[in-house]
Structures are given as structure tokens and as C-alpha cells.
């Protein structure tokens, strides 16, 4: 038998360990060494927020494997506390540093899965011990200890005292999970986000739903504001004498001038590819600084592969390249790299959709494909469709509205979709992600055959409904106007509100004409008179009744357009409309 | 303006009313008449079982529309109690019969949406008033009245008395819903099914899970047995004197000789297309008796369209034709027919997948595409894969196993999939239905990018996992053996059980060698000795550990195969293995 090859893996978590495991299954005789700088391998990064909240009670649950179990099941040589500091590509050796020593390790194939590093925002005082990250196991250990300490000292003292306070900087996926976890532990949480809405990848129409959910759980939002400075709170602040509060309190100064006193701060403003090692070894990087790989995960060096948060992928829809730091792609890239290293048939990496999901208290938000901002930036022509169907048949108790936004190319192709709701969101985004991968369009969505019985869906599933509406928009059966065109619409058209009188009374647009849709056929003259030759901009609550009205009007030769997503979407984009209600009603 | 055309619709529920509604939206001026023989239109047939159970409390919730609301919103002329008895194709007129009169109604376009009629099984005494159907609103009214009466008379009398008893004949989707509903009301339910497992469209490996769930909720199963005869119970049966029980009790005699005394019987053994009207008018029917239509829902008469349970569709995968009585297709066919009638661009009906789902107490069962029996009958070559992944990350509390069976063509194409479990089943089947529609295969499933965070899924989603396993089976990385090959396997191979000693002790195959997978690398000689040149048939609980073992053995040159789905699937196919446990352990 020929000498077995040595596969060296740098980074022993999602991408790296998936590759090592698959490589072993493909090659029983390879010498597979996994080098991990930290103390833990194969841990569930994605579970860290749920250990912070206490939902995942035992830390051990997060450790899917240990070096010992990886040795006994997969015969892997896993070395924790071993950091790779250099790659000698000519010699095919890596330099490894441990607490005690430095050594060189030859490889036949090298796989880089070093992940990403947290972006350090330009905030003064970030090194204060009250400031935490949430990336690795020791981070969550420290956070739990801090929270436990804060709660314990409060329990010892005045039970009526204010709860401990946390500031979370960054309202991305992980930031939101941190907020939920800290609030679940009973902390008063402030959430600071530079963008003008929470979860920046989400389209602006959907984000207010999350903001409302956060607020209703007591979270204080600071949107459009960055953290500027973190300094120890003055001793003057009276937090009792006998307990030494762990690492706090601090005062966080925001860019809008606000100051928040907090017992702890969690910073999560994104990651950047951990590509220093690759760069120093002269491997090609993309403009984003991520490692460039081919469809087989191979870098510019034929003996080196790379996967996960550190690599560049082609993004679906736009074709742009850059990193997409998600666990699913990292795991599958690891598997693909192992296939390639072991000389197996591979299926090249498909353009990445960036499908992602987050639970925020009772709500779920999920995205797949390109969002509107991305499409605008890329100059890709698209129509945006908003629907708010129930997650299952309305006549069966418990139906929850799903708010779906999707973009379609003029030829009908789906470009991206997002959804927020209390139930059934994950299912619809997964179906849409599958459709997107398959290159489906409005016609295909309209015809998908999804499982229906009353507890699970509708005869016309929300995804079908999205397809119907998109078809109508694209073939101009239903021309539409968008919430963000409100100013032009108010200036140049008649606004016709076809909701009931009661709904109208509870809040409406100034100057709108109210004719309930069931009366429209008898009151066409009123519409024509009020319009005076201007186009008619119809709306109702969700878009369904106003669609009927739009069709009636167009059937009568009136130039009518329907508001996409109705009052629900309009007030999300223009929250000031809801504030005015008291005055107007 | 030219005279408006008249569109006449026969049948005012799923397909018919969807067509009428869409036609109105496309043509404000058409004269649209909907003729419905029953007293109700636009009712939620699919919700009937949930009104029986009481979950849908108000019957009105089932009536999505009334003739009045359809007039006010859509200007439809809806006529209940109007039965169409004949079509005069030459004159383009239908004959309509009401309680009072008969009239002829001319049409420009005629749409047939008469649905299906219940199959009457050859059971003596089916006309006894204790025997019920569950198809239309009056059926559920009668059933509720009967159940209410039975429960009330019991409450009046001896509270310790046995609960009322129901026999449900037919364990299809609706039969199972009826069972669940009656059990929820507190009845003792017997379920009689001619096939050898409940939910006959389900593959035999999955059905035992449903049977177990039914039994654990007190349902008595009579499988492989048909109802033969229903006769009034002898007066001798002592049910008290003062209450007259509504329409019962009866004695149901089964084909296996069993007799069950029951207060009510619900018969649901399938439907056949209601195509008599079409046949009498000379329209083309398929061999199944369903109305033949083209991709636009047009019948052999260019002025007549047909949709829903009454029509023939092309079934995906096999290409066979026949009716597929489901609400989703009916609704969408109605929409397509309206498009065609109104001269719009249509998207032709795609081959139908037959995606369907049912809740059975705490379990959900769902199917899409061809099942194994269908593939075998059609002579389509396929590999069957069984997996049992968690519905979300295992480290996050509450993960429930999903049992998935899927068939793949030798080229990797997905042919059909089925799943049973307590959570997440609907999502996976919808993703697989979308994949099937897109013509995806194992490679595509492996690479799908589905939404993952711990409460919703796994970095390697169950659907990805299915793809991985299928890839390994198809490229023979992991040759497998199937539970139904047990006899051959026991005769010609060594059975190697790689579970732990504890699992082995709790039940195993006679003659199996037990080597936990973590010890296998050190005990290869034992395997070689025991095998004595025979192939080695490996198994564990679910297939994962035995896959690792299979790869170790094959890496060492041993001809090893893995049991698809492991002990979980094996014991579902061979329940006698579990019965023997006490003896053997
Ligand atoms: C709190 C949190 C929650 C998340 N939630 C989700 C989620 O819900 N869904 C989702 O899809 N994704 C989530 N992610 C992202 C996901 O965990 C990552 O995308 C994924 O782990 C990336 O895999 P990777 O193998 O590239 O890197 P990692 O899994 O981060 O592993 C990289 C490893 O390499 C080690 N390493 C780096 N450099 C060296 C070196 N020179 N020598 C030795 N070792 C080195 C690091 O110590 C690290 O352990 C979350 C991440 C975090 C932190
Ligand atoms: C209890 C029950 C539960 C169900 N659950 C589900 C489910 O969970 N999921 C699912 O997908 N499907 C389900 N179905 C099936 C679904 O309801 C049907 O597939 C669907 O309704 C078929 O639509 P259709 O328009 O063809 O027929 P129907 O909706 O049955 O409508 C046909 C109508 O035509 C009328 N009619 C017939 N002949 C004439 C005539 N000559 N003149 C005038 N009127 C006439 C009938 O009275 C009837 O009202 C269920 C069905 C039932 C009965
Ligand atoms: C756990 C870890 C070591 C990966 O291990 P893995 O062995 O590749 O993955 P799994 O344990 O899920 O097993 C998957 C394998 O089992 C196989 N399998 C699954 N079910 C099977 C069944 N019923 N029968 C046969 N094989 C089966 C799959 O085909 C796959 O093998 P393949 O890749 O060779 O095709 C690695 O992913 C890891 O370290 N993860 C933790 C970190 C992480 O992922 N973080 C981000 C998310 S929190
Ligand atoms: C209810 C029934 C009358 C159908 O009515 P329908 O008007 O076609 O269907 P819906 O009320 O769901 O509305 C769908 C329409 O609203 C449109 N729509 C949905 N959301 C919209 C939004 N936010 N903005 C604009 N339009 C929207 C859709 O595009 C679709 O119109 P289209 O077909 O012209 O494209 C008919 O299906 C029926 O009688 N159903 C009961 C029986 C039944 O289905 N039984 C079996 C299942 S229980």
C-alpha cells in the first residue's frame, strides 16, 4: 500500500471539522490532523445565544464533539490550543504554535477553515471589561458569569431595584439573538444600531414589525445611532456598597448624544474573513479580503483548499463576490473540499442565496436572495410585491399573518424574498429559497403544489398567492403604487380608500375618498368626479379588496393602481401616519 | 360596447368559485352565473373534520362566502339549489333543475366543476341511518347532531358507562381526520381499513408510526379488513330504556369475522370523478372516468372547460393520467380556466405531484410525488433512502425526529418523498415538492440553502442530509440493504450491529455480531473471522453510525453494506422483532 497522505485542517469547527469528518469517511487511511487555536472544537457557535438565555441549559450540549470522540469515531488527530502561524507553500508545511512550542507540520493537502474575526467598531473604551463579544465558548462563559453575578447581587439587595442594564451594539442576526437572550434573563436591554432600522439586511418595510416586537418586550431602541465612547460610570452612581459588580457599570455615549448607563455591553457589528494567514502565504484574495476559491473550494495554490466564513463566494442574483458568513454554506463547503481533496466527483458551489433566519421573541424574520437595497445598488430592474396572507387557512383557528416582500425581474424571475411573522415563516422562506435556486419565477410560484390541510396551509398557499400577485403586477392586470411613492401619489392622483367606514375612521390619508369596495360599482361617478381626470390610487388594508376595486375601475376605463401591501405596508414605511390618527379620527 | 359574454359555472365550491372569482376580476362586464345543486357555496370542505372535532366552533367559519357576499364583492349571480341536468352543446345551453322548475340557460363559455362523488363500498346495510358520510356541510351537521346526542344521553345517564362507539371505514386522509375528530369528542373509535396499513398512499415503512399514534390515543385498528355488513344491534343489547339513541346502535361485521357494535359509522373509502354530466354530453373522458382536458383546462368541446376532482391530470414522475382530488390543484385549475376563458396568457397545468398532508393527533404525515408502490407498478428503477434527522438542531431543546423516505432515479433525480414526525414535516415536504417540481436531484438537495438557526433547522438540514445519503447510495460510497431484504441478508451475510452494548441488549437480530462502531477499527479481525468471506450487512439505530462502520470496512477491503434507515426502519417493517425482545434480551 502506498504511504497514506496527510490532510491538515486549520480550524476545527463548522467548515474545518465537516471537511475532516468527510475526508475520513472517504479515506480510511489518510492521516488527518485538525489544528484549532482555541480550546474547543465542533462547538455550536449558533447555539451560543441560547446558552446565554438559558434555553440550552448545559454548556456541554454545545460541544457536538471533543477531540476524544473525534478520535474514537473518526480517527482524527485533533489538536486544540494549536495555532497555525504560517504556511510554507514550497515545502508544503505549516508552522504551528502552542503554549509550549512551535513546530512545522508537512501536508499533502491543506484545508483552511479559520472562520472570521469580529469587526471592532471605532468606539473609544472598547477594552473596558464590561464589554463583551459573543463568538466563541469562552465569550458565553464570561457573559453568563457576568449576568449571573448581576442578577445575584440584585437578588441579595433591594428586590424593587431596577434590573441590570445591557447595551447591545449592532442589530444584526446575532445582535438580535443577544438582545432576546439578555431580555429573557431579565435585563433591561438597549439596542444600538447605526442603520435606520433593525436587522439591516431586511427591507425597510418589514423591519418596523421587529422594532415593535422588541419595544413590546421592553427593549429600548436607538436607531440611526452608533456607540461612540464607553467609560466607567462615575462612582457617584449609587449601586450599593457591599457587592462588587462584575466589570461595570459603564456609560455608553451614542452618536446622537444619548448616554446610557449599563452594567454590560455586547458588541456585534459584523465579521470579516480571517484571511491573514492566507494573505501572508500569498494566496489570492478577493477585493473583500476573503480567500478566493474555485468551484471545488481550491485556492490559487493547488494543494490548498479553503472554506467557510474566510472565503469568497459568488452571490446569487447579483453575481457579486464576497464572503457570506453562514453555517450551512460552511458545512457544505467543508464536505465539498473533502470530496475534492479525496479526488471524488464534486458538485461545484452554487451561487449563494444567503438564506438566513432569526427569532426575535414571538416573531421570526427570514431572508433569501437579494434584498431591495442590493438590487438598487446593482442596478437590477425589479418589481416589489407585498402580501400578508395567513400562515394557514383563515377558517382554522390560530392563523397568523405572514408579511412577505419579494422582488421579481421583469421576465418574472424571483430575485429575493423576505418574510416576518409569528408562524410559518421558515417554511415559506425555505420554499422560496428552493424556488430561487431552481431559477423559478412568478408563474412557477403560482403553480407550486404545497401540502395543504387546514392546520398547515391554504389551498392557495402564501407562496402561490405571492406568485399570483406577481403575475398580475408583471402583466399589468394590476399596476401598483408603492408606499415610498406616497408624496407623488398624494400630489398627482386621487387616493381611493376602499376599506369599511370603520377602518377609515380609525386612520386614513388626508384627502382620501372612502368608498367601501362593495359599494364601488354603484358609486363610479363619485370616483370619476373626485378624480377629475387624474389617475386613481386605490388602497385597502392588505391589498386584496383594493385589487378587486382596481379591477372594477380598470374595467370601467379608469386608470387605477393598487397600493402594494396596503395600509399595513404603508404605515410600516410611514409610521407617522399612525401617530396622526388620534388627531384625525 | 359589444354584448357581454355569459360564463356559466357548474359547481360553486373550490374549482368553480375560484374560476368565477378570477373571471370577474378579468372581465368586469361578463355575465357570470354559478349553479350549485347544494345549499352552500364556497365552503371549506377541508375544514369539515375540524368542525366535527369542535376546533372550528362556528359552522359559519366554514362558509367563506355566501351568494350575497359573492354578489356584493364580485357581482356574481350565484344560484344554490340549482342542479344542471344536461348540456346541449349544439345550442350552448344547460338544463337547470330547481325544486320548483326546470329551465335552460345559454352560455358562451361553460365551466364544469362538479367535484367528485363518494365511492359506495359493497357493504350490506349501508343505508342504515347510523351510517354517515363526511363530504358536505349537511354531512357534518348530521354527524355533530348525532355525536352531541350520544354524548348528551350518556351524560344524562350513567357517567361510568362506556363511551359511545364509532366505526370509521377507510383510513385515507379524510378517514384519519374523522377518526381524530371523533376521538377528540370522546368516542371510542374503531378504524377499519382494507389495505394492510393505515393511509395506503404512505409507504409501508412509515405507516406503523401512524398506527402506533392511533393506538396510543385509544383507537382500535382493524387492518387488512373490510366492512361487510351493517345491521341494527339486537334489542337485547342493553343501552338503557329511557333514551332513544339517534340512529343506532348497529353491528358492523368485518371481512375477518370481527363484529363491532357501534353508535355511528363513518364511511370514507375514496371518491370518483363526478363526470356523468360530461359523459352524457359526449365529452371525452379518460379511462379513469375523469373528464379529459388540455393544458388550459379545455375539454374536447372548445366552449367547455373543466376543473377539479372531476378532471384527469397527468401525474408527475409516472406520467400516468387520472384524477387527483385535492383542493390546491382544484383552486389553481379554476384560476387557469378563467384565464383561458377570458383569453389571457395561461401557464399550462404542470404534472401533478399529489402533495398531501394529514395531522393524526400529535403526528403529521405528508407525501409528494410517487410512492414506492407506484414506482414498482410503473416499473421505474429507483433507490429508496431512509433518514431520521431531527427537525432542528439537536443541541437546541425540543428536537423531534422526522422520518423521511425518498426515492431517487439512478441518475439522481428525486421521484417522490414522504415524511412522518411531530414537527417540521410540512416544511420538508414543501421543500421537496418544490424540488420535485424543479426536477432537482440528490446533488441539488445536498446543496439547498435552507434557513438555519437553532430553533428552525440544522446547518445540515434534513433535506440536505437526504441529498447526502442519496449521493452516497447512488455513487456506491455506501451500498445499502433494505429492511425488506432481511431474509436474504440473514441467510447469505454476516449481520454486524454497531450499536452500543446497551442498545444491543435491548433487542437485536438473532446471530448478529455486536461491535460498537467506536471499537471497530481495533476489532476488524473479529469481523473477518465471523464473516468467513460472506458480505457484511451493517446496521445501527438510524443508519449514521453504521455508515461510518461501512466506510471503515470498505476502506479495509471488506464488502460491507449499510441498512437503510437502521433498526428504526427495520422494526417498522418487521414489528415482530420488537415482540421478540422480551424473550431475547
Ligand atoms: C453567536 C453566533 C451565532 C450564529 N448563528 C448562526 C445561525 O443561526 N445560522 C447560521 O447560519 N450561522 C450562524 N453563525 C455563523 C456560523 O457559526 C459561521 O458561519 C460558521 O461557524 C463558519 O464556519 P467556519 O468553519 O468558517 O468558521 P468557524 O466555525 O468560526 O471556525 C473557525 C475556527 O478556526 C479557528 N482558527 C482560526 N484561525 C486559526 C489558526 N490560524 N490556527 C488554528 N485555528 C484557527 C478559530 O479559532 C475557529 O474555532 C453564528 C455565529 C455566531 C458567532
Ligand atoms: C372532508 C373533506 C376534507 C378534505 N380535506 C382536504 C385537504 O385537507 N386538503 C386538500 O387538498 N383537499 C381536501 N379535500 C378535497 C377537496 O375539498 C377537493 O379536492 C376540492 O374541493 C375539489 O374541488 P372541486 O371544485 O372539484 O369540487 P367541490 O369543491 O367538491 O365542488 C363541487 C360542487 O359541485 C356541485 N355539483 C356537482 N354536480 C353538480 C351539478 N350537476 N349541478 C350543480 N352543482 C353540482 C357539488 O354540489 C359541489 O358543491 C377534502 C375534501 C373533503 C370532503
Ligand atoms: C459535527 C461535525 C463534526 C460534522 O460532522 P459530520 O459527520 O460531517 O456531520 P453529521 O454528524 O451531521 O453526519 C453527516 C453524515 O452522516 C450521513 N448520514 C446522515 N444520516 C444518515 C443515515 N440515516 N444513513 C446513512 N448516513 C447518514 C450523511 O450522509 C453525512 O455523511 P457524508 O457527508 O459522508 O455524506 C461538524 O459539522 C462540526 O464540527 N459542527 C459543529 C460546528 C458547526 O457546525 N457550527 C455551525 C453551526 S452551529
Ligand atoms: C374563496 C373562493 C371564492 C376563491 O376566491 P378568490 O377570490 O379566487 O381567492 P382569494 O380570496 O384567496 O383571493 C385571491 C386573489 O387575491 C389576490 N391577492 C391576494 N393577496 C393580494 C394582495 N396583497 N394584493 C393584491 N392582490 C392580492 C390574488 O392575486 C388572487 O387574485 P387572482 O387570482 O386574480 O390573481 C373560492 O376559492 C372558494 O369558494 N373556496 C372555498 C372552497 C374551497 O376552496 N375548498 C377547498 C379548500 S377548503
UniProtKB/TrEMBL annotation, chains A, B:
> Which co-factors does it depend on?
FAD
Organism name: Georgenia daeguensis
Show the taxonomic lineage. Bacteria, Bacillati, Actinomycetota, Actinomycetes, Micrococcales
Give the protein's recorded name.
FAD-dependent oxidoreductase
Pinpoint the Rhodanese domain residues.
Answer: 489-579
Keywords per UniProt: FAD, Flavoprotein, Oxidoreductase, Redox-active center
Q: Which family does it belong to?
A: Belongs to the class-III pyridine nucleotide-disulfide oxidoreductase family.
InterPro entries named in the record: FAD-bd_OxRdtase, FAD/NAD-bd_sf, FAD/NAD-binding_dom, FAD/NAD-linked_Rdtase_dimer_sf, Pyr_nucl-diS_OxRdtase_dimer, Rhodanese-like_dom, Rhodanese-like_dom_sf
List, alphabetically, the SUPFAM superfamilies matched: FAD/NAD(P)-binding domain, FAD/NAD-linked reductases, dimerisation (C-terminal) domain, Rhodanese/Cell cycle control phosphatase
Which superkingdom heads the taxonomic lineage of this protein's source? Bacteria
Amino acid at each position: 500500500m502506498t504511504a497514506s497522505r496527510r490532510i491538515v485542517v486549520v480550524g476545527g469547527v463548522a467548515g474545518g471539522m465537516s471537511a475532516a469528518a468527510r475526508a475520513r469517511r472517504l479515506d480510511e487511511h489518510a492521516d488527518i490532523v485538525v489544528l484549532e487555536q482555541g480550546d474547543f472544537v465542533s462547538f455550536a457557535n449558533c447555539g451560543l445565544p441560547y446558552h446565554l438565555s438559558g434555553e440550552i441549559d448545559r454548556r456541554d450540549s454545545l460541544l457536538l464533539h471533543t477531540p476524544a470522540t473525534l478520535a474514537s469515531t473518526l480517527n482524527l488527530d485533533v489538536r486544540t490550543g494549536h495555532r497555525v502561524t504560517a504556511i510554507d507553500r514550497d515545502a508544503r508545511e505549516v508552522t504551528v504554535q502552542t503554549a509550549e512550542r512551535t513546530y512545522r507540520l508537512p501536508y499533502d493537502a491543506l484545508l483552511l477553515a479559520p472562520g472570521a474575526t469580529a469587526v471592532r467598531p471605532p468606539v473609544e473604551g472598547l477594552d473596558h471589561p464590561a464589554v463583551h463579544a459573543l463568538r466563541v465558548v469562552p465569550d458565553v462563559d464570561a457573559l453568563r458569569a457576568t449576568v449571573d453575578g448581576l442578577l445575584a447581587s440584585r437578588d441579595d439587595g433591594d428586590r424593587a431595584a431596577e434590573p441590570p442594564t445591557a447595551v447591545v451594539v449592532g442589530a444584526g442576526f446575532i445582535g438580535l439573538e443577544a438582545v432576546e437572550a439578555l431580555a429573557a434573563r431579565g435585563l433591561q436591554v438597549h439596542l444600538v444600531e447605526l442603520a435606520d432600522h433593525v436587522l439591516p439586511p431586511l427591507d425597510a418595510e418589514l423591519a418596523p414589525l421587529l422594532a415593535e416586537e422588541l419595544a413590546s418586550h421592553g427593549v429600548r431602541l436607538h436607531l440611526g445611532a452608533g456607540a461612540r465612547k464607553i467609560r466607567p460610570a462615575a462612582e457617584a452612581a449609587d449601586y450599593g456598597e457591599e457587592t462588587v459588580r462584575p466589570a461595570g457599570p459603564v456609560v455608553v455615549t451614542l452618536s446622537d448624544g444619548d448616554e446610557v448607563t449599563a452594567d454590560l455591553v455586547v458588541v456585534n457589528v459584523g465579521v470579516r474573513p480571517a484571511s491573514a494567514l492566507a494573505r501572508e502565504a500569498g494566496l489570492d484574495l478577493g477585493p473583500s479580503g476573503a480567500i478566493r476559491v474555485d468551484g471545488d473550494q481550491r485556492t490559487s495554490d493547488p494543494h490548498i483548499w479553503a472554506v467557510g466564513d474566510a472565503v469568497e463566494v459568488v452571490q446569487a442574483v447579483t453575481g457579486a463576490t464576497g464572503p457570506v458568513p453562514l453555517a450551512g454554506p460552511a458545512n457544505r463547503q467543508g464536505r465539498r473540499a473533502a470530496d475534492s481533496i479525496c479526488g471524488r466527483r464534486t458538485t461545484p458551489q452554487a451561487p449563494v442565496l444567503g438564506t438566513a433566519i432569526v427569532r426575535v421573541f414571538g416573531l421570526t424574520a427570514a431572508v433569501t436572495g437579494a434584498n431591495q437595497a442590493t438590487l438598487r445598488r446593482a442596478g437590477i430592474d425589479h418589481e416589489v410585491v407585498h402580501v400578508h396572507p395567513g400562515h394557514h387557512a383563515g377558517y382554522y383557528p390560530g392563523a397568523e399573518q405572514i408579511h412577505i416582500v419579494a422582488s421579481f425581474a421583469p421576465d418574472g424571475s424571483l430575485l429575493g424574498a423576505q418574510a416576518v411573522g409569528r408562524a410559518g415563516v421558515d417554511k415559506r422562506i425555505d420554499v422560496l429559497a428552493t424556488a430561487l435556486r431552481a431559477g423559478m419565477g412568478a408563474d412557477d410560484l403560482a403553480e407550486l403544489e404545497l401540502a395543504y390541510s387546514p392546520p398547515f396551509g391554504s389551498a392557495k398557499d402564501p407562496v402561490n398567492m405571492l406568485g399570483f400577485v406577481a403575475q398580475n403586477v408583471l402583466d399589468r392586470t394590476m399596476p401598483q403604487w408603492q408606499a415610498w411613492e406616497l408624496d407623488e401619489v398624494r400630489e398627482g392622483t386621487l387616493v381611493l380608500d376602499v376599506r369599511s367606514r370603520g377602518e377609515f375612521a380609525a386612520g386614513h390619508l388626508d384627502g382620501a375618498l372612502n368608498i367601501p369596495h362593495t359599494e364601488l360599482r354603484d358609486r363610479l361617478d363619485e370616483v370619476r368626479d373626485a378624480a377629475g381626470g387624474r389617475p386613481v390610487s386605490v388602497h385597502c388594508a392588505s391589498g386584496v379588496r383594493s385589487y378587486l376595486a382596481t379591477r372594477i375601475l380598470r374595467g370601467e376605463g379608469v386608470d387605477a393602481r393598487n397600493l402594494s401591501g396596503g395600509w399595513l405596508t404603508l404605515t410600516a414605511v410611514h409610521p407617522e401616519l399612525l401617530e396622526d390618527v388620534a388627531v384625525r379620527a
